[in-house]
Amino acid sequence: MQPVLWAAGGTGFTFLMTTLGAAVVFFFRKKATALAQHIFLGFAAGVMIAASIWSLLMPAIEEAEAAGMAGWIPAAGGFVLGVGFLIAMDGLLPHLHPGAQKTEGLKAHVKRTTLLVFAVTLHNIPEGMAVGLSFALAAQHGNDPALYSAALALAIGIGIQNFPEGAAISLPLREEGMGRAKAFICGSLSGLVEPVFGILTVLAASQIQPLMPWLLSFAAGAMMYVVVEELIPEAHLGEHSNIGTLGVMGGFLLMMVMDVALG
């Protein structure tokens, strides 16, 4: 029960940060500037890259080797499965990225604003899984304080990058003509999948402990797909692409320091 509570707290924090980010719709009339978007998107990408390596892939390799397996097998296999999962979801779930005109996924007769929410919601799934798995890993190692600290660092890092993510959905919704209150609610709810998938992942991991290396690398693959497919390209669109690059470096550095210092 304890890892579930920890996961609920960690993913609850990331959800709260998404909600706070969505709340900026009450204070700003327009969407963020292109420069700010480049910084935020790059920062989010850097955080997720570092989290994928230090918080997911490295523990997956260590877990596999401790069980007497070749560490690279579940790390590579789970990574590929995570990428495949996001590719499948991208191809099936109707969604529309902010600033884009063409809908992705299967055709559906739903509002443009709903498609915008679906896009962010889809990419929040691996983040919730990553936080949940980190707390599950700590519980499986006898509530190791160092692993709990590492899980907290991951939750904090993802929470920080969720703040601009919340704004990145509520402000475009407002620009599409949606009322401020409704845009805020939709932006907030886009992050609700994080505690849902975080808790579900902890419950699943407790029943299938031998698969933990595969699950960790699965989350890493899914997160890296989001980074390479969406965040980095969008951070480098148009002018000021170097700002997006610096955002990636800054996010990576912050997450790396937090994970190593607190882990």
Could you explain the architecture of this structure?
With 263 residues, this protein is an all-alpha fold. The chain is built from 9 helices and no strands. The chain has helices at 2-22, 34-66, 72-92, 112-140, 145-175, 180-189, 193-207, 212-235, 241-262. Helix 2 (34-66) packs across helix 3, helix 2 runs parallel beside helix 9 (241-262) and helix 4 runs antiparallel to helix 8. The radius of gyration is 18 Å and the shape is globular. The mean pLDDT is 85.
Topology:
Layout: H1 2-22, H2 34-66, H3 72-92, H4 112-140, H5 145-175, H6 180-189, H7 193-207, H8 212-235, H9 241-262
Helix pairs in contact: 1-4, 1-5, 1-6, 1-7, 2-3, 2-4, 2-5, 2-8, 2-9, 3-8, 4-5, 4-7, 4-8, 5-6, 5-9
Radius of gyration: 18 Å
Cα-to-Cα separation, first versus last residue: 22 Å
Assembly type? single chain
Task: Tally the helices.
Answer: 9
| Beta-strand content bin | under 5%
Report the principal-axis shape: globular
* Helix vs. strand class: mainly alpha
User: H/E series, N to C?
Assistant: HHHHHHHHH
Q: Runs with pLDDT <50, length 5+? A: none
Major beta-sheet overview: none
Mean pLDDT: 85
Number of strands: 0
Percent helix among the residues?
Answer: over 70%
